[in-house]
TrEMBL record:
Signal peptide: none annotated. This is ATP-binding cassette domain-containing protein. Keywords: ATP-binding, Nodulation, Nucleotide-binding, Transport. It holds the Pfam family ABC_tran. It comes from Luteimonas salinilitoris. One of its GO terms (molecular function) is ATP binding. Belongs to the ABC transporter superfamily. Residues 2-236 form the ABC transporter domain. SMART domains: AAA. InterPro entries: AAA+_ATPase, ABC_transporter-like_ATP-bd, ABC_transporter_ATP-binding, P-loop_NTPase.
Amino acid sequence: MIEIRNLHKTFKAKAGPVHAVRGVGFEARDGEITGLLGPNGAGKTTTLRMLYTLMKPDEGDVRVDGLDAHREATAVRQRLGVLPDARGVYKRLTARENIAYFGALHGLDAGTIAARIEQLAETLVMEDFLDRRTEGFSQGQRTKTAIARALVHDPRNVILDEPTNGLDVMTTRGLRGFLRRLRDEGRCVIFSSHIMQEVAALCDRIVVIAHGEVRAIGTPDELRAATGLDDLEDVFVRLADLDQGEAA
Ligand SMILES: Nc1ncnc2c1ncn2[C@@H]1O[C@H](COP(=O)(O)OP(=O)(O)OP(=O)(O)O)[C@@H](O)[C@H]1O
């Protein structure tokens, strides 16, 4: 369970301050997939970075399973599996070694790590490239490696920044099935996307974010009812104040 309240983050830039996140708050429940949906530059990645303790908010707080993300950062990190926007796999290591290294950092023993890798590699269909160095990996292979690495310690809460970016149709379908399974196991799953159809296909609840603010929270049907629009892309365009051309 992840609760975030009144998060603010402003970056200093030469041209003036950028108010990336302005009072974002929502709750992501266990046993649900929560989608953070917003156009480019809306503040999704910045929100997620604060959520997984990489960045300190200027204001507001984050609680993970009731623990304060700032004061109890180590305990919170143990409860989180994170796919960051920069996948950052080590290119001199094989996929297996990348995953095992994170398992060791989490304090798992060798037997547990080996068993988890077998399980994750099967679920994510990684057997063909598991023992290759990641240098030269396709985007999908790198993403799968980073997802497996994020999940090696069997976290209760899973945060994925644009997980399907650059993945082909079959890999995306596989990943959706995988995220549903995590949800059905009672985990809290949050992922971000700028594609309404993507979020609608998978999420129990959608948090629409634009210009650093939450514009609406609800199921796809609730968002349709709130806007009086049928087409989900139109719903997104309306809620995020987009011109038609920016929606894709
Ligand atoms: N380190 C930083 N320094 C300055 N500005 C930043 C920094 N990180 C983010 N921003 C700005 O904050 C705003 C929100 O960025 P963020 O990456 O959170 O958006 P996003 O919703 O994830 O977008 P996208 O879908 O394009 O990835 C943008 O205007 C971005 O340029």
